[in-house]
Amino acid sequence: MQEMQIACHTWSYNNLSLEDAVGTIARLGFRYIDLGTGPHLDIDSAAAYPEAEAAKILRLLQQFNLTLTDLYLMLPFINAPDPARRGSELALFEQLIPFAVALRTPGITVSPGIVHRDGIDHSLARAVPALMRMLQAAEDTDLRVSFEAHMDSVAQTPEQALLLLEAVPGLSLTLDYSHFVYQGIVRREIEPLLEHVAHIQIRQARRGALQTAHDDGTINLPELLQDLREHGYRGALCVEYMTTFGWHGMRQISISREAVRTRDALRATYARLDTASTPR
Length: 280
Description:
- This protein has helices at about 20-25, 45-50, 50-65, 85-105, 120-135, 160-165, 175-180, 185-190, 220-230, 255-275; strands at about 5-10, 30-35, 65-75, 105-110, 145-150, 170-175, 195-200, 235-240.
- It is α/β, with parallel strands linked by helices.
- It has one domain (about 5-275): Alpha-Beta Barrel (TIM Barrel).
- It has an eight-stranded parallel barrel with strand order 1-2-3-4-5-6-7-8.
- The longest helix has 23 residues, at about 255-275.
């Protein structure tokens, strides 16, 4: 039986230093971790000194016996109306590829770009060549490149996400169900995306609340894991509660408690699915 890799995102502890965030995640019993841009990562230093910056992070992960499962490079202006701004953002992504390789991450997650002042259609149209360029920047590496369909982005709906996936061959998806559940989007609308999924982020949510306590959420974990299994998903599952309370109705919760409860629910569900699928 393949080990189920359940990670925790460092974004869950953006109020802590990277060392304290990593230590907290390890002490909670996680053995896998996702890392993202923000307070934990100096991207200018990572671009300028990729091997040295990666080595510092790898030593920290080794100290706490953690394995990296994803690097999220949040560069939301890759599709900015201003050519200079989107050019600098894309150039930064290209400069970060050596860092990602040195960090030995299996993949990179990016934002597909946000909706800018000229509206969704123009923002979405500019996202296509930007994502193509990002994919090309990584083509000589073993890195997979996937985008997250998230609120405020050009891929807030399954239809928009599919449009990008069809327009940029080789691109994959980091799926976070909470962004769809928040909008009232149901399982049958999400199902066409599952064959494109390369990474999973999970937290409980409900319509109108992008984050809730585990027991208050409406995401059906057994259904989700079964759907992923049927589509051949074998990657990691990253528990990602966040400190951005209030953003799209995110509830203020105990991050550590809810992360552990969600992780344990995933483990229990996975075990039941394995038992059910074992020949008798």
